[in-house]
Write a structure and sequence with these properties.
Elements lengths: L4 H6 L2 H7 L9 H6 L8 H13 L3 H9 L7 H4 L5 H9 L7 H18 L17 H11 L4 H24 L4 H13 L20 H17 L3 E4 L5 E5 L8 E7 L13 H15 L7 E7 L12 H6 L18 H7 L17 E9 L4 H5 L3 E7 L1 E10 L3 E2 L11 H19 L3 E3 L3 E2 L7 E2 L2 E10 L2 H22 L2 E10 L2 E2 L2 H13 L6 E4 L5 H4 L5 E6 L16 H21 L2
Helix pairs in contact: 4-10, 8-9, 11-13, 11-21, 13-21, 17-18, 19-21
Length: 591
């Protein structure tokens, strides 16, 4: 019989420790220590309690735990001395049926890894979905992680150990993240559509109104109908809109959703998670025959990334009346105008103004999104409540000095434009760090017509500065620009700095942020607050209605805009549960 929370909470210390035996390889002390936090509210509470114990353990204890794990397809597997849990996991991943070539490759990787790090390679081989990773993905991950810095890889090993323990705990309780698995599967199916030229390489790229983009829209609209939405449409800019009516015809509406387009060679979860989470919630309401005192409108925004045309946030912008008609004449790399692409897709350009929403009809906007950063992953926390979407300023800049001979110009006579920018880059790094949550980046740096034996006379560069509030953003920009001027003056250089973009910060509405916080707390995981450094559709809706976001933890140090972008079905399930909790809160608050 599966274990229950009631049994675990009621058991004496010795019995409870025995019930949790085997979660961490040959290390029962982790679960034993975590039991002091009983009574547990949920499995998520147990998982976090154990993660806390290990995070607070001495470094040697952490290292001993890592070294207690067997090598993948190693001597313990060959010698039949693996624990029952490890045997099951390696078997599910097919490691017990390696070809001679695969086995030889893994043995070499094991040897190289141990020589570099001094501990065995740890990977949760049952994967983010819990059903086992393909052998080639395991081998590719093994090879990729060999290049990691030692401290980072040690932390990555511990994160994988926690994932292994999470899956083992699920097994003990007979628990499966059913809705999280459904959302995972939807994302896998949607990722089968990719633009020509990328699909052939196995890369995910979906840009505005391509064949793959329109196939995604059709798939989303079909799945929304299957979920029980009362109305589903593809609107005049290609947004996929599903409406689940409230209990009364005049009920206000909760707006939610995210985007389904991607960057080139991107990940499967950026944006799309925020469509599928509310879809799963609506499907459950429909299955229960339940109506809320408000409607739910889920929008799969057609364009957010600005990849095919320079029209970022086109989908959400249209909903607030910010579709720029000049965009229609923009041409993509193949010379196809946006107007032509829209007509080819069967969209009615004349209907775009009708998409503007009346904020009086809406309660607000909420969005679930993968974090796209390392913070939650490093903290060992599955969900994060967003406090603000950072405002930003971007500048296109140039430093101008004097090109001269690299061999004959003494160091104290140089007017080196590139060194001036390098000094600014170091200052920007230090200045942004003073705020804690500000960021500053010189992402582009070019020496036009540079030569190996010429002191750079010109250096073109970008400046990207972001912060959670506009005053903080402006102070950051003012300091960095002042330092740019001071560096130029001190080094005998000239500069130009042209503002190319400015976007206001979008602080979360207090009441809506608190709803997310209550939902997360109810799940038994800590409430962790953080700003969003990336822009999201929520920042557009913020202009006409209250908004708040919830982040889910990403794997691989939270990398995003990258094929490695990933999260687990367990974390997706928690996001669905939190979303459902927010729906319940609003329902109890609504007259």
């Amino acid at each position: 019989m599966p274990l229950t929370l009631e049994q675990l909470n009621a058991a004496d210390a010795v019995t409870a420790a025995a019930l949790l035996d085997g979660l961490y390889e040959h290390s029962p002390w982790i679960a034993e220590t975590a039991l002091a936090q009983r009574p547990f509210k949920s499995l998520a509470h147990i998982k976090h309690a154990m993660a806390q114990v290990l995070a607070q353990a001495p470094g040697q204890a952490q290292l001993d735990l890592i070294r207690a794990h067997p090598e993948l397809a190693g001597k313990a597997m060959v010698g039949n001395t693996l624990t029952a849990e490890s045997t099951n996991e390696q078997n599910q991943a097919g490691l017990t049926q390696c070809t001679p070539e695969e086995f030889a490759r893994i043995q070499q990787l094991n040897a190289d890894y141990n020589a570099r790090f001094g501990f065995p390679f740890i990977l949760a081989v049952r994967g983010p979905r819990g059903q086992g990773l393909p052998k080639q993905e395991i081998i590719d991950t093994f090879a990729r992680r060999l290049a990691n810095p030692v401290d980072f890889e040690r932390a990555e090993a511990l994160r994988n150990i926690h994932r292994i323990a999470e899956i083992r705990l699920n097994d003990k309780f007979g628990y499966a993240p059913t809705l999280g698995n459904d959302v995972w599967d939807w994302q896998e199916r949607l990722a089968q559509h990719s633009d020509a030229g990328y699909a052939e390489k196995g890369q995910l790229t979906v840009t505005y109104l391509t064949d793959a983009h329109r196939a995604c829209a059709q798939a989303l609209s079909h799945w929304m109908r299957e979920c029980g939405f009362d109305e589903v449409e593809i609107d005049a800019v290609g947004n996929v809109v599903g409406r689940y009516h409230g209990a009364t015809p005049d009920a206000k509406v909760l707006l939610t959703g995210s985007h389904y387009d991607t960057v080139r060679n991107g990940g499967k979860y950026d944006g799309r998670l925020g469509i599928f989470v509310p879809m799963a919630c609506v499907r459950e309401l429909h299955r229960q025959g339940k109506r809320l005192p408000f409607g739910i409108e889920v929008v799969g925004f057609a364009e957010e990334e600005g990849q095919r045309y320079k029209a970022t946030f086109l989908g959400s912008g249209a909903l607030i009346g910010q579709f720029n008609p000049a965009w229609l004449e923009q041409k993509d790399a193949d010379g196809i105008a946006m107007r032509e692409a829209m007509q080819h897709a069967g969209l009615c350009v004349d209907d775009i103004p009708k998409l503007q929403r009346d904020p009086a009809r809406y309660l607000g906007f909420i969005e679930v999104h993968i974090e796209q950063g390392p913070v939650l992953n490093e903290q060992g926390i599955p969900l994060g409540v967003v406090t603000s979407i950072n405002g930003g300023k971007r500048y296109v800049c140039e430093m101008i000095g004097m090109a001269s001979h690299a061999g004959t110009t003494p160091m104290d006579r140089r007017r080196d434009a590139a060194v001036g920018v390098a000094e600014l880059a170091l200052y920007a790094e230090q200045r942004a760090a003073q705020d804690g949550d500000s960021v500053a980046t010189i992402g582009q740096l070019t020496v036009p017509n540079g030569s190996i034996n010429v002191v750079p006379g010109r250096c073109q560069f970008s400046l990207d500065m972001r912060a959670p509030t506009d005053p903080q953003r402006d102070a950051l920009a003012a300091d960095i620009l002042a330092e740019l001027e001071a560096i130029a003056r001190r080094r005998g250089l000239r500069f130009s700095a042209e503002l190319s973009m400015q976007v206001a910060a979008a602080p979360s509405a207090t009441a809506w942020q608190q709803r997310w916080e209550r939902a997360v707390e109810a799940l038994g995981v800590p409430v962790f607050r953080l700003p969003s450094g990336a822009g999201h559709d929520a920042m557009k809706l913020h202009e006409i209605m209250p908004q708040a976001m919830l982040f889910t933890r990403g794997l691989h140090s939270g990398i995003s805009h990258n094929p490695l972008e990933s999260t687990t079905s367990d974390d997706m399930q928690l996001a669905i549960d939190a979303f459902s909790h927010v729906l319940h809160q609003i329902a109890t608050e609504t007259p």
